[in-house]
Amino acid sequence: MPRGRELPESLSDQAAELVGELRTVRSRSGLTLVALARKTAYSKSSWERYLNGRTLPSADAVRALCTVAGCDPVPLLALRDVAAAADAAARKERGERAGVAVERAEGERSGSPAAEDAQGLVPAPRTAGAVPRTADAVPVSGAVDGVPVPVSGAADAVPAHRTAPGPWWRRRWSVAAVLGAGAAVVGGVLVAEPWQGGSEAAAPRSPFTSAHEGPYVWGRETSYPCRIQQHGGRTYAGHSGTHETVLAHNTTSWDVVEAQCLLRAAGLDPGAVDGVYGPNTEQAVKRLQARAGIEDDGLVGPDTWKVLRG
């Protein structure tokens, strides 16, 4: 593994292996973090988190790295899925341990004198001599797990009176306190997880920006319609709402369909609108970039999307 900042101790073996491979790819490419931020849709601080094991990179981030570094993304994506599964299993195990701890603490609390008082068990005052048996007085000689045990024939025992449960507001607040404590413990476990610092939150879906629920599937001689429309001052074609996804040669996705439609709307010919980023689409992108005065590298990144969206 190339030299870098030490990884968090809580990082799983699978995640550590993924970080090592990502560092190797970046080192061989000679790209700095600033260069990665300039050529991809992810900031310098995001790449720092990915390469230091503080955040699990998204699948799109792995693809973007391989696009600019010239590596095969398939092995890295498989390793990322394994690391994500190990991370989810670790979170589940910690959550279960936290729940057991809360139940144990509550069980210990229920056996205390204060808990008995809250449940309506109030000891009666001790009196000298024989104690008459009544319906509301039961002699006790001890308790098992916090529950009074009656003993017949005890003449000098302390009677215990079971009264009606406490007021409804006391019982309700007691339950709310227990549930709140459990949520706080589980929430603390999730916040402490090293993969939870990701900043790439999914944007809300909109019928103006995406017409597809499932993943893109290529079909021979397939051509998709372009429904050009304006939304929020920007142009959309109804296939994707992305503004940052990096597209390069041989990419296939709904994002490519969107870019091909927008290229046509800009008066450029990307070839068939089929979702395949081939030579015709790449040449159309380069012509658009040259016309807009930005770097004509044939890659569709944030700057190119800005030009396409208008």
Spell out the key features of this protein:
310 residues, alpha+beta, single chain, two-stranded antiparallel sheet, elongated, 47% helix
Q: What would your notes on this structure say?
A:
The chain has a four-stranded antiparallel sheet with strand order 1-4-2-3. Helix 1 runs parallel beside helix 4. The radius of gyration is 33 Å and the shape is elongated. The protein has 310 residues and is α+β, with helices and mostly antiparallel strands. It contains ten helices and six strands.
End-to-end separation in angstroms reads 43 Å
Q: Give the strand order of the largest sheet, numbering strands 1, 2, ... along the chain.
A: 1-4-2-3
Report the helical percentage. 40-55%
Task: Give the low-confidence spans.
Answer: 114-122, 127-141, 149-164, 168-178, 184-194, 196-204
- On the 0-100 scale, what is the average pLDDT? 74
The H-and-E topology, N to C, reads as HHHHHHEEEEHEEHHH
**Strand-residue fraction?**
5-15%
Q: What Rg, in angstroms, do the CA atoms define?
A: 33 Å
The helix tally amounts to 10
Overall 3D geometry?
elongated
Q: Which sheet architecture does the biggest sheet show?
A: 4 strands, antiparallel
The secondary structure category is alpha+beta
Number of strands: 6
